[in-house]
TrEMBL record:
<feature type="transmembrane region" description="Helical">
    <location>
        <begin position="358"/>
        <end position="378"/>
    </location>
</feature>
<keyword id="KW-1003">Cell membrane</keyword>
<dbReference type="Pfam" id="PF13440">
    <property type="entry name" value="Polysacc_synt_3"/>
</dbReference>
<dbReference type="GO" id="GO:0005886">
    <property type="term" value="C:plasma membrane"/>
</dbReference>
<feature type="transmembrane region" description="Helical">
    <location>
        <begin position="443"/>
        <end position="465"/>
    </location>
</feature>
<feature type="transmembrane region" description="Helical">
    <location>
        <begin position="323"/>
        <end position="346"/>
    </location>
</feature>
<feature type="transmembrane region" description="Helical">
    <location>
        <begin position="390"/>
        <end position="408"/>
    </location>
</feature>
<keyword id="KW-0812">Transmembrane</keyword>
<protein>
    <submittedName>
        <fullName>Polysaccharide biosynthesis protein</fullName>
    </submittedName>
</protein>
<feature type="transmembrane region" description="Helical">
    <location>
        <begin position="119"/>
        <end position="139"/>
    </location>
</feature>
<comment type="similarity">
    <text>Belongs to the polysaccharide synthase family.</text>
</comment>
<keyword id="KW-0472">Membrane</keyword>
<feature type="transmembrane region" description="Helical">
    <location>
        <begin position="175"/>
        <end position="195"/>
    </location>
</feature>
<feature type="transmembrane region" description="Helical">
    <location>
        <begin position="84"/>
        <end position="107"/>
    </location>
</feature>
<feature type="transmembrane region" description="Helical">
    <location>
        <begin position="151"/>
        <end position="169"/>
    </location>
</feature>
<keyword id="KW-1133">Transmembrane helix</keyword>
<feature type="transmembrane region" description="Helical">
    <location>
        <begin position="292"/>
        <end position="311"/>
    </location>
</feature>
Amino acid sequence: MSKQHLSLKEKTAHGLLWGGLNNGFQQLLNLFFGIWLSRILNVEDYGIIGVLTIFTLIATTLQESGFTQAIANKEKPTHHDFNAIFWCSSSIGISLYIILFFAAPYIAQFFQIPELTSVARFLFIGFVLSSLGTAHNAYLFKYLMVKERAISMLTGLTISGIVGVTLAYNGFAYWGLAAQHITYILCTNSLFWYFSRWKPSWNFNLKPIKELLPFSSRILITKICIHINNHIFNILLGRLYSKTEVGYYSQSNKWNLMGSSIITEMIQGVAQPVLRNVVSDKDRQKRVLIKLFRFTAFTSFPALFGLAYIAPEFISIALTEKWLKSAYILQILCIGGAFIPLNHLLGNFIISRGKSSIYMWNTIALGLTQLTSALLLYPYGVHTMVSTSVGIQILWTVIWTLFAYKEIHFTLFNLFRETLPYLTAIVVSITLSHYCLVNFENIYLLFFSKIISVGFLYILILIIFRASILKESYNFAKTYFLKTAKNKTH
């Protein structure tokens, strides 16, 4: 049976399966190469690249311009739609590179880091490379070709990781991180071209952009705000503190975003297309949203709270003692990170309803609130700034729910019913594990004992209280694999 003939439920299962495998293996590769690079490089090396992260993310978002989500919301996109995206995105990418090439010395002057000029000009080449694959990525996303996107990203991560570690090991310092970034973009987008059934033509008709622009422009602004929210501290610390402080925060934030993105990307790869397919039936869309929300909470809370629990041991073992100061920051960030996938899911729901303006303004409000709190609290230290930002992130889950209620009556009761059981289960599991292992002194034994005990206790608690998600997940996987095996025999 071809993918085109799968039911919506089967497509969701297929997407979640490959999305989960993709993000799981992605983070394992990021973990492997991240540990190697962290051991080779020093805190200042990460600080230099860290202050440029926000520029690369915002510029990449500008060249993508929200076209991926916009085309996913279009019922039957044509060749001309994808072709217009290709030429528009490419033009923006090239223009941005030219602008930022000449702006690089001023960026270096702002942060008082002379090395940034040459590094920025090299790193910003990624804008041009990624712009050439925007339309192809949009094609794969629209048609739920999650497997093909997974292969592309995993291949890119592997090759780029090898390049980064090799250069860092041979003394190229922060240039290894920069080269890793460029290599990943080049490999991934090359494979997007290979897997996409669509290819560009020499037709410069940009009329479809006018149709997509009202929706895509709001997605664009929203994504920029999200990147600012995630990386604003790199800019503030780079300006107000030292490269060392940026390095510690950048390292902590990297692992936090890596943990939350496992869940976020897995859900995001299917949420908007699937929710869009049932947009005409509010009751069915609500049921789909609740199931996705339950699954997100079930996976997000143990992943991020678990990472917070093992942070000191993980940092000491994997990255060595020189990074230990980042462990406490990581613990704080992970608490807020557990709610990021939930917020993203609700945001994707709002997009599926065609309300990109709500998505945009709510994200802008979140960003402005976090930025204001950071500017007011920076004299009190990094930990105070980060803790307040995390509190705001958690509060915003409630605000997203209020918007969802206006659309399909997804209530605060639904929010608490689908999150509190898993939040309670993981907090109880970590508490019991902590008191059982309090006398363990061997750091390696403590590290693995924490992981095993929390995982066991979390599942045990859900079994005792007969959590429906366990049966749903089992039946979900069983049905999918049985049908896949049956299709192969035919």
